[in-house]
Amino acid sequence: MKIDYKFEQAYPFENGVARVKLHGKTGLIDRTGTFISQPEHESISEFSEGFAIVRDDERTSNEKCGFVDSQGHYLCPGAFDNAHPFCGGPAMVAPPCSWKDYDIGCEHEHCSIAQCAWYRS
Length: 121
What we know:
Largest sheet: 4 strands, antiparallel
Number of domains: 1
Shape: globular
Distance between the termini: 45 Å
Number of helices: 0
Helix content: under 10%
Number of strands: 12
Strand content: 35-45%
């Protein structure tokens, strides 16, 4: 399938989706070129264990992070000051003023910080 050229930048497909930049913002498209995550984020990382890190306001001190899966479902959007990819289960995240390990042991589409397991690093 051919997707019309309209993006400033496009990355290879992984997990059935591709990261794209449009008007300076990043989103995710499926193989038909349909957005599953609108281009409204500063950046979206590569996927790791089914999730990509979504960063907003990257150029300010108010940067906020969360995660998105390949279906466009968000996991705790904007809940963290910083985040690292999931690796072997947990992901290292920084809620305001402290680093912790975040475990993906809950159902991500219904997840809230209070429902998920937190472990001190």
